[in-house]
Amino acid sequence: MNYELLCNKVISIVRLTGNFIRKEAMQFDANKIEYKGLNDMVSYVDKTAEQKLVQNLEKLIPDVGFLTEEKTINREGKTYKWIIDPLDGTTNFIHGLPTYAISVALYEDDKAVLGVVYELNRGEMFYSYKGGPAFMNKKEIQVSVNPDLKSSLLATGFPYYQFDKQDQYLQLLSEMMQKTHGLRRMGSAATDLIYVACGRFDAFFEYNLQPWDFAGGCFIVQQAGGEVYNFSGGDDFFNTREIVATNGKLSAELIEAIKRHFA
C-alpha cells in the first residue's frame, strides 16, 4: 500500500466535499435540522457530505469497511476501515459559528495508518500517513515545545449528554483555569486535535467522544510528535472514548490532574 499516494487521493475527495459544505453554509436554513438525541443535531448537509465521502472513498480500496457518524454505511472490512465524520462541529455550523471540520481516518488491522482533517473556515488541510510526517497545507507541522501546564494553553469540550460526571469535570476545569494560560472550547474535537498537532494548543482533553470525532485527529497528533492517552494514562483511548492529547511534555502532569478528579 502506497500510503502517501492514497493520502493525496483522500485529500482531493475531502476538499471536494468541503466545497459542498461551504456552499451550503452560505444558504443554510436552520429550520431543517433534526435531532438524533438530546442536544445532538444533524442536518441534510451532514448526511449529504457523508454520502459524497463514502461514494468516493469506496472506490480507493476494495472490500473496505466503514464506520460513519450518520450511518450512511457501517460495515466491517477484511483489513481496512474508513472512519468518517462528515461535519465535526455540527452545532457550530448550524449556528453560523466558524469552527467545523471534515475528519477521515483509515485503519488497517485496527491501527490508524492515515488521517485527514479539513478545517473549512480557515481552509487548512491537516494530514499524515504511515511512515510520513504530519502536514498542514503541504507544510510540515510539529507539536509545541512548552514544558509544563503553567506555560500552556489547553483545549477541552463540554459534554452535551450523560451528565453524571459533570461535577468532577467542572472541578478539573477549575484547576486547569488556575494552572494554565487558559482553556478554550472550540466545539469541534477534530479541530482541537489538529491544533495540538500544529502547536496552537499544547494539550486537549475530553470524554464521551465517538471514534469518528477523534480517529483522524489523534493519528495526526501522534505523527506530529505528540502523545494520546485515555484518562487513566493508558493507550486504549479508542474504546474508552476518553482523549488526552498532548505535546508529549505535559502528559504526566495533565493525566495526574485528571486522575485526581476521575478516580
Describe the protein's topology.
Layout: H1 3-25, E1 34-37, E2 40-42, H2 44-57, E3 65-68, E4 80-88, H3 90-95, E5 101-108, E6 111-119, E7 124-129, E8 134-136, E9 139-141, E10 153-156, H4 166-179, E11 182-184, H5 189-197, E12 203-207, H6 211-223, E13 227-229, H7 237-240, E14 242-246, H8 251-261
Helix pairs in contact: 1-2, 4-8, 5-6
Summed up:
Belongs to the inositol monophosphatase superfamily. Helix content is 36%, strand content 26%.
What is the CATH topology of the largest domain?
Fructose-1,6-Bisphosphatase, Chain A, domain 1
What structural class should be given to the helix and strand makeup?
alpha+beta
Q: Which residue ranges are poorly predicted, with pLDDT under 50 across at least 5 consecutive positions?
A: none
Silhouette: globular
Q: What's the CATH class of the largest domain, please?
A: Alpha Beta
Number of domains: 2
Helix content: 25-40%
Task: Give the neighbour order of strands across the main sheet.
Answer: 3-4-5-6-7-8-9
The quaternary organization reads as single chain
Question: What this model shows, in words?
Answer:
The protein has a seven-stranded mixed beta sheet with strand order 3-4-5-6-7-8-9, sandwiched between helices. Strands 11-10-12-14-13 form a five-stranded mixed beta sheet, with helices on both faces. The protein is of the alpha+beta class and 263 residues long. It has helices at 3-25, 44-57, 90-95, 166-179, 189-197, 211-223, 237-240, 251-261, and strands at 34-37, 40-42, 65-68, 80-88, 101-108, 111-119, 124-129, 134-136, 139-141, 153-156, 182-184, 203-207, 227-229, 242-246. Helix content is 36%, strand content 26%. It catalyses: a myo-inositol phosphate + H2O = myo-inositol + phosphate. Belongs to the inositol monophosphatase superfamily. Keywords: Hydrolase, Magnesium, Metal-binding.
